[in-house]
Design a protein that fits this description.
The complex is a heterodimer of chains A (254) and B (548).
Chain A (H helix, E strand, L loop, with lengths): L4 H7 L9 E6 L2 E6 L4 H7 L23 E4 L5 E3 L10 E3 L3 H17 L14 H9 L15 E2 L5 E4 L8 H10 L4 E4 L6 E4 L16 H5 L5 E3 L13 H13 L1
Chain B lengths: L2 H16 L3 E6 L2 H5 L2 H14 L6 E6 L11 E4 L3 E3 L7 H6 L16 H4 L17 H6 L4 H9 L2 H11 L11 H10 L6 E6 L8 H8 L1 H15 L3 E7 L3 H16 L15 E7 L8 H8 L23 E5 H13 L1 H5 L9 E8 L5 E6 L4 H8 L9 E6 L6 E3 L9 H6 L8 E6 L4 H15 L5 H18 L7 H15 L3 H5 L2 H9 L1 H8 L13 H5 L1
Parallel strand pairs in B: 1-2, 5-6, 5-8, 6-7, 9-13
Antiparallel strand pairs in B: 1-3, 3-4, 9-10, 11-12, 11-13
Helix pairs in contact in B: 7-11, 7-14, 8-9, 8-11, 10-12, 11-14, 18-19, 18-22, 19-20, 20-22
The chains are: A alpha+beta (254), B alpha/beta (548).
Chain lengths: 254, 548
C-alpha cells in the first residue's frame, strides 16, 4: 500500500517501524500484534492458553502436532496458531467445544501410538505430554493402542534414547540443527514407522557429529531422551538456556 | 531462430513423412512396450527391409494410441487402419497387406465410441508423432505458441489468455491456472522458478506418464510460456524415478530443444532465457504435495509444511515458484495458439476444456482417454469404456485416487466436473478412474486406499500419522469378520478428525474413500459387521471367531 508522501517517508523507515501493527480479537478479547507475530505468541502475551507440543520458544515452527489448532471466524478450516499470522480484525477462538474435542482426540492418538506409561518413566511428573493430558482433561484413551515396539539406544556415554516414548515432535532435530549447528539428529522412515535417528542411523554413541552438548535431551518433551543414571521421575529438563540463545539470535538478526 | 526457420523445419519434416507411401505407427509408450511393442517395431522394420521397401514404407515409434488394453497397438497411415494385439509374427502379414485390405484378424475399429467420443487437446499428438523427434513436434505446429507468446505478446497478455481460457489446475484441486500465474507474476523477486509436477502417484493413474512419454515437447513449451509469463528463467520437472521411459524421453526432449535454441539463452532472438532441469523423486506419494515437492527438489526430506505462505510467494529456495501439473502445462500451447476464448468454449460453465483420464479396473476398454469436461460418467464407462468386463453389473467408480471417493450407480449421469464431483464426496484428482463391479468389496476398497495413505504418510503431523493407522486397523478387523457394531461410528469419528486437523492435502483427503463408501455402501459394512458376510465374496471372514 502507498501512503501519502509525508507518511510514506515514515513508513519506509525500517528503523522506526520494521513491521506494521494490527489489532484483532482472541476469544472476544481485543489484542494488538505486530504483523510478524503468530497468533500463538500474541495469545501467550495476553495470558490466553493454547496447548502446544512441537512448539518450543527459540526453535523454528513446524505446525505438526496440531494441538494448537484454533478456529478463525469465517473460515471452515482450523488453523495451527503457531504458524498462522493474524490479520486486522480477525476473530480467533481458541476454546470452542469443537477445537477442545479435536485436541483431546489428537492427544489420545499420540498415547495410542507408542508406549507412554508414566509410572515407569524417567520423566514422570516433568513431562510435557503428561502435562497436556491434565491441561486438556484427557482421562481415558478410547482408541485401541497400537502396541508398537521400538528400540532403546543407550550407546551414548551420558544419554539414552527410548523410541517407545518419542512423539516425533522433532524438537531434538531442530535444536541440534538450529542452535547447536551439529545436525546429528534427523528423521528416517515414513508415517508411523518414522523415527528420529543420529547421523545415518548409527548408534548414538558412535555418532561422529554429536558434540555431546545434551541440548536435545533438555528440549525433549517426554522421557524419550534422558540422561543416564536417572530413575523413575528423576529426569527434570533444564531449558533455561533457550531464552538466552533465542535472545542472542534475535540480536544477531537486527 | 526466426519463425521462418521454425516453419521450415516443420515443413521439411512433413514433406519427408509424406514422401512415404505408407507409415506404420507402432505405439512405444509404457503400456504397449510392456507387451513387447519394441520387438514388434523391430520385426516390422526388418520385414520392410527384407522386402526392400525402405523408401516407400516408414516404420516409426509413436506415443500412446489410447486403447492400452488391446496393446501392442499399430496404426497404418494414411489409410487410418488400426491393429490391436499385434505380435512379432504378424509383421509380415501387416507389411503384405499395405495398400490393400487390412489384416482382418488384427483389425481394431477406430469408429467405435472409444475413439469417436473423445476430444483430444492434450493428447492431440499422441499416437501421431515420434516422441523423440523434435522435428515431428514442430511439424504439428509445435513451438509456434512459444514464438507467439515471446514475439507477439507481453507477459500480461499471455496470462490474460490463460485466465480467459478458464483453465484450472489438472493436478486435482482445480485452482484457476490464470490466477496462480498472476499471483506469481505479481510477487517481487529477482529469481523465480517454474516447476512441473510429474510425481504422479495415484494407484491406477498414468495420464502424466503417457503425456511425458508421448509428447514431451508440449510440456516443455508450456513451461517456457509459463516462465515468460511469470518472469522465471529456470524450470524444474519433478518426475518420479519409477517412470524411467518418461525421464529418458523428457531428457532427450530437453537436449533436442536446447540444440535448436528453443530452450536456453535468447529464445527466438528475444531477451528471454529459460532452462529446464529434471529432478527425480524417490517414490514418495506425499512429494506430489507442492511444499513437500519443493523440499524434495531442494534436497531435503520430502515432508510438507503449513501454508500460507504459498509457494507462489515463498517457494523453491525461498523464491516465488509456479507449480503446475504436467497436464496443465500441456494445455498451455494450444490455448496460446488458438486463444483463450476457443478453450473456454469447451466444457462446462465452471470447468473448461477437456480432461485426460486413465480408465482402469473392471471395464472393457482400459486405457488413456480424453473427454470434454461435463461428459457424464455413464458415457465414460459405458460408451468410451465399452461397459463392464464379462457383462457384470456396475457397482462404483473411484475417482481421484486415494484422495477421492467411490461414486455409486445413482450418480452415473452426473457430469464430470470439479464441482459435481465435490458435491458427491469425491474429487476430480489427477484423472485416475477405477471402475468396480459387483465382485469388488467396498470395505476392502476403502481398506486398500487407507492402507496406501497410511504407508505414504510422511509422519509429520499426528492425525495423519496415527489416525490413518487407527482407521486401517478398524477396517481390517471389519474385513476379517471381527467388526463391532460401534465401529462405523468410530470410523466416522476418526475420519472427521483426520480430515479436519491434518497438515497437508494427503491427510485432509485420505478419509474420502472411507467416508464415501460408508455413505453409499452402508449395507456392505453392516453385512460384514452384523452378518459376518462379505457380499462380494472377496474378504476372508474369520468364521471361527463368529461361532465362539
Amino acid at each position: 500500500m502507498r501512503y501519502p508522501a509525508f507518511l510514506q517517508r515514515i513508513a519506509d523507515r525500517a528503523d522506526v517501524q520494521p513491521a506494521r501493527v494490527l489489532t484483532f480479537s482472541i476469544n472476544g478479547q481485543d489484542v494488538s500484534a505486530r504483523e510478524d507475530e503468530t497468533i500463538l505468541a500474541v495469545a501467550r502475551e495476553n495470558g490466553i492458553p493454547i496447548p502446544t507440543l512441537c512448539h518450543l520458544d527459540g526453535l523454528s515452527e513446524r505446525g505438526a502436532c496440531r494441538l494448537c489448532i484454533v478456529e478463525i471466524k469465517g473460515s471452515p478450516k482450523l488453523s495451527p496458531a503457531c504458524v498462522t499470522l493474524p490479520r486486522q480484525d480477525m476473530e480467533v477462538i481458541t476454546n470452542s467445544d469443537r477445537v477442545l474435542d479435536y485436541r483431546r482426540k489428537i492427544l489420545e492418538l499420540l498415547f495410542t501410538e507408542r508406549n507412554h506409561v508414566c509410572s515407569v518413566c524417567v520423566s514422570n511428573g516433568h513431562c510435557d505430554l503428561q502435562a497436556l493430558t491434565i491441561e486438556l482433561g484427557m482421562t481415558h484413551v478410547h482408541y485401541d493402542y497400537l502396541h508398537s515396539q521400538h528400540t532403546v539406544d543407550a550407546s551414548h556415554e551420558r544419554f539414552s534414547v527410548d523410541h517407545n516414548r518419542c512423539v516425533l515432535c522433532q524438537r531434538c532435530v531442530r535444536v541440534c540443527d538450529e542452535i547447536e549447528g551439529a545436525h546429528t539428529w534427523d528423521v528416517m522412515g515414513r508415517g508411523h514407522l518414522s523415527k528420529v535417528i543420529t547421523d545415518l542411523n548409527q548408534p548414538w554413541g558412535e555418532s561422529t557429529t554429536c558434540t555431546g552438548c545434551g541440548k536435545c535431551v533438555q528440549v525433549c518433551p517426554t522421557g524419550a531422551l534422558s540422561e543416564k543414571g536417572k530413575s523413575v521421575a528423576e529426569m527434570t529438563k533444564k531449558r533455561q538456556f533457550l531464552p538466552y540463545l533465542k535472545l542472542m539470535r534475535g540480536e544477531e538478526q537486527k | 531462430m526466426t519463425i521462418e526457420e521454425l516453419q521450415d523445419i516443420g515443413r521439411i519434416e512433413k514433406e519427408k513423412q509424406e514422401g512415404f507411401k505408407h507409415r506404420i505407427h507402432v505405439c512405444v509408450a509404457a503400456g504397449c512396450l510392456s507387451c513387447q511393442s519394441g520387438l514388434v517395431k523391430e520385426a516390422l522394420e526388418k520385414e520392410v527391409g527384407r522386402r526392400g521397401l525402405e523408401s516407400w514404407v516408414l516404420v516409426k515409434g509413436v506415443g500412446c494410441l489410447g486403447l492400452c488394453t488391446a496393446g501392442p497397438m499399430v496404426a497404418v497411415e494414411p489409410n487410418k487402419i488400426l491393429y490391436q494385439g499385434v505380435a512379432v509374427s504378424d509383421a509380415s502379414d501387416i507389411v503384405e497387406a499395405l495398400g490393400g485390405p487390412s489384416v482382418s484378424r488384427l483389425d481394431c475399429s477406430n469408429q467405435v465410441p472409444f475413439f469417436t467420443r473423445q476430444q483430444k487437446i492434450v493428447l492431440e499428438n499422441c499416437g501421431l508423432i515420434d516422441p523423440e523427434s523434435i522435428e515431428e513436434y514442430i511439424s504439428e505446429t509445435g513451438y509456434e505458441a512459444l514464438f507467439n507468446a515471446l514475439r507477439m505478446m507481453n507477459p500480461t497478455g499471455v496470462i490474460e489468455q490463460i485466465s480467459k481460457s478458464g483453465l484450472r489446475g489438472r493436478g486435482g484441486a482445480g485452482f484457476p491456472t490464470g490466477l496462480k500465474w498472476t499471483t506469481v507474476s505479481k510477487t517481487k523477486g529477482n529469481v523465480k522458478f517454474v516447476v512441473c509436477n510429474a510425481d504422479e502417484g495415484d494407484p491406477g493413474a498414468f495420464m502424466d506418464r503417457s503425456v511425458l512419454e508421448s509428447d514431451p515437447h508440449r510440456v516443455l513449451e508450456g513451461m517456457a510460456i509459463a516462465g515468460y509469463a511469470v518472469g522465471a528463467h529456470y524450470g524444474f520437472i519433478y518426475v518420479r524415478a519409477e517412470y524411467p521411459l518418461a525421464v529418458k524421453r523428457i531428457r532427450t526432449a530437453i537436449a533436442r530443444a536446447e540444440r535448436l535454441g528453443l530452450l536456453g539463452h535468447n529464445i527466438f532472438n528475444t531477451t528471454f532465457s529459460f532452462d529446464v532441469t529434471v529432478r527425480l523423486g524417490a517414490g514418495a506419494f506425499v512429494c506430489g504435495e507442492e511444499t513437500a515437492l519443493i523440499a524434495s527438489i531442494e534436497g531435503r526430506r520430502g515432508s510438507p509444511r503449513p501454508r500460507p505462505p504459498f509457494p507462489a510467494e515463498l517457494g523453491l529456495w525461498g523464491s516465488p515458484t509456479l507449480i503446475n501439473n504436467v497436464e496443465t502445462f500441456a494445455n498451455v500451447p494450444p490455448i496460446i495458439r488458438k486463444g483463450g476464448a476457443w478453450f473456454a468454449g469447451i466444457g462446462t460453465e465452471k470447468s473448461k476444456g477437456t480432461k485426460v483420464f486413465a480408465l482402469a479396473g473392471q471395464v472393457n476398454n482400459t486405457g488413456l482417454i480424453e473427454a470434454p469436461m461435463g461428459t457424464t460418467l455413464r458415457e465414460i464407462v459405458f460408451d468410451i469404456g465399452g461397459g463392464i468386463k464379462h457383462g457384470r453389473k456396475f457397482k462404483a467408480i473411484q475417482t481421484g485416487g486415494p484422495s477421492g471417493g467411490c461414486i455409486p450407480e445413482q450418480f452415473l449421469d452426473m457430469s464430470m466436473d470439479y464441482e459435481s464431483l465435490a458435491k458427491v464426496g469425491s474429487i476430480m484428482g489427477s484423472g485416475g478412474l477405477i471402475v468396480m463391479d459387483e465382485t469388488s468389496c467396498m470395505v476392502d476398497v476403502a481398506k486398500f486406499f487407507i492402507e496406501f495413505c497410511m504407508s505414504e504418510s510422511c509422519g509429520k503431523c499426528v492425525p495423519c500419522r496415527v489416525g490413518t493407522v487407527q482407521i486401517y486397523n478398524v477396517l481390517r478387523r471389519i474385513t476379517e469378520g471381527d467388526g463391532k457394531p460401534s465401529d462405523i461410528a468410530l470410523l466416522e469419528e476418526l475420519c472427521d478428525l483426520v480430515k479436519n486437523t491434518s497438515l497437508c492435502g494427503l491427510g485432509q483427503t485420505s478419509p474420502n474413500p472411507v467416508l464415501s463408501t460408508i455413505h453409499y455402501f452402508m449395507d456392505e459394512y453392516k453385512a460384514h459387521i452384523e452378518d459376518k458376510v462379505c457380499p462380494a465374496g472377496t474378504c476372508h471372514i474369520n468364521h471361527t471367531e463368529k461361532s465362539q
